[in-house]
Amino acid sequence: MGSGTWVDVVRRWFQRRSGSVNTLGNGNRHVGVTDFEAKSSVTPSRQEEKKELTILEDFNISGLKVIKVPKRINFPASSSMDPHKKNPLETEFFTEYGEASRYQVQEVIGKGSYGVVGSAVDTHTGERVAIKKINDVFEHVSDATRILREIKLLRLLRHPDIVEIKHIMLPPSRREFKDIYVVFELMESDLHQVIKANDDLTPEHYQFFLYQLLRGLKYIHTANVFHRDLKPKNILANADCKLKICDFGLARVSFNDAPSAIFWTDYVATRWYRAPELCGSFFSKYTPAIDIWSIGCIFAEMLTGKPLFPGKNVVHQLDLMTDLLGTPPAESIARIRNEKARRYLSSMRKKQHVSFSQKFPNADPLALRLLERMVAFDPKDRPSAEEALADPYFSGLSNVDREPSTQPISKLEFEFERRKLTKDDVRELIYREILEYHPQMLQEYLRGGDQTSFMYPRRKLLLQDFLDDWGLARITVYTHLHQIHLLK
C-alpha cells in the first residue's frame, strides 16, 4: 500500500473521530462540542443527541433558601441609547468579528489581565450568555498555550457541574487574529462572593454545594485531568445554589495510571488551597488527591466564612496545616521528596491533632468526618471523589446514576504539551479548536489537507491508535510504519 493511501486512511479516520460521540461511564452518550451551534442550524437528530447528554437532576432542593449572588463588576450600558443605533459598549467590545451582530452586549461583569467579560443576549436563541474577550492572545506563547488548554478541556469535559463553552466566535483571519471571544453560559457570581455575602447558609446548603463540587471532580478525574487551581473564585454560582467549576488554565492531563511528575515552579495556584505535598518548588509526584485537598479547604471556608489555611508564605502555610492536623508521622514525612521540607517537618516541635468538632463547633459531625478525610496530610489517606460521594454525609442525596464517569482523554488531544510551540503553532491550534464550534468550516478545513505538521504531531502514535481501533496487533503497526517511512 502506498504511503499516500495510508495517510489518506489516517486522515479520514481522524475526521471521523473528531466528530464522534464519547460514551459516559454510566452508559449515557456524551455529545461532542461540535453539537454546540446556533439552534437554527441544529437538526432534529442532533437535538435528540443533546437531550441524551442531560443528567437527571431530581434533587429535592425546594427547602434551600435562595442565596445572595453579588456581582463582581457592573458597568451598565446607557439606558438612554437609541435602540436603532449600535450600542457603544458593543462597538468597544467587538472589533471586526462578523458574528458580533448575533450578540447584544448588556454590561461588563468582569475585568482582568486577560481582557473583559460582558453579559449579552444571544439573538439566535434568546439566551443570556457571558462573553469573555481575551485580548492579544499571542503576545506570550505561555499565555496562549494556557488558553488553548482551557478551551480544549472545556470542550472535552461536558458536565452539569463544569462551566460550559457554548460558542467561540470565528476570527476574521485565520493567520492574523489576535483576540478571542469565548461565549460561556452566564453564571451570576462566584463562591468567593457567595461566602462573603451569605452569613446564613444552612447545613443543607453546605451539603449540596460540596456534593456538586465532588460530582464534577469525579468526572474530571476519570478523564485523567487534574484541575490544580481549585479555589472559591474558580467556582461559579447562581442564586438557585447551582455551582460550576471553571478556569482550567492550570489543569494538566495525565496519560498513564502512575502519579505524574512536574516541576512545581510551574505551579502558581493560590497557596491557601494548595496541598501540603505541593508546598515548595520541587520535583515531586502528584495525584488527584491534590484537588481533593483543595475541595476540603473550600468546604471548611463555607462552614466558617474564613479561609482554613491563609498562609503568608510556604513555611507559614505548613505551620497552619500542622497546627490543625498535628505533626505528620515519620513515614509521611519520609515520602516528601524535598529535603528542606523534610528537615523542617522533622525538626518541628511535636504538635497534637486538634479535634475538628472543637475547630468547627456548630458543624454536622458527618460533615466534619468527611472534611477530616479530605484534608489528611498524607495524600494516600484522602478519599477519591467517588469515595467521598459515597460517604454517609451524602445519604439521601448521592445517586450513582447521576454521578457519571467518563473515558480518559486521548493523548493525541494534548500532544502539543510535549512540543516547543511557536506563536504561529499555537494560533493554528487555537483556530482548530474554534472550528469545533463551526462544523461546516471544520469539515472544509479537514478536507483541505493543508494542516501544518504539528496538527498530526506524531504520526506513529496516530496510526497506532487507528489500527488499535480495528484490533490489529501492535507489531503490525510498526511493520506498516517502516514500510511507509513515517518513523522519524
UniProtKB/TrEMBL annotation:
Show the GO MF annotations: ATP binding; MAP kinase activity
The answer on whether this UniProt entry bears the keyword Phosphoprotein reads yes
List its EC numbers.
2.7.11.24
For this protein, the record's SMART domains field holds: S_TKc (SM00220)
Gene3D superfamilies noted in UniProt: Phosphorylase Kinase, domain 1, Transferase(Phosphotransferase) domain 1
Query: Which range is the signal sequence, renumbered to this chain?
Result: none
Reactions catalysed: L-threonyl-[protein] + ATP = O-phospho-L-threonyl-[protein] + ADP + H(+); L-seryl-[protein] + ATP = O-phospho-L-seryl-[protein] + ADP + H(+)
Which residue numbers delimit the Protein kinase domain? 103-394
Under the heading PROSITE patterns, the entry gives: MAPK (PS01351), PROTEIN_KINASE_ATP (PS00107), PROTEIN_KINASE_DOM (PS50011)
Instruction: Provide the alphabetized UniProt keywords.
Output: ATP-binding, Kinase, Nucleotide-binding, Phosphoprotein, Serine/threonine-protein kinase, Transferase
Query: Which amino acids does the record list as binding ATP?
Result: 133
Instruction: Please name the top-level EC class of this enzyme.
Output: transferase
Q: Which family does it belong to?
A: Belongs to the protein kinase superfamily. CMGC Ser/Thr protein kinase family. MAP kinase subfamily.
- Enumerate the PANTHER family for this protein: MITOGEN-ACTIVATED PROTEIN KINASE (PTHR24055)
Q: What is this protein called?
A: mitogen-activated protein kinase
Q: Which organism is it from?
A: Ilex paraguariensis (yerba mate)
Specify the taxonomic lineage: Eukaryota, Viridiplantae, Streptophyta, Embryophyta, Tracheophyta
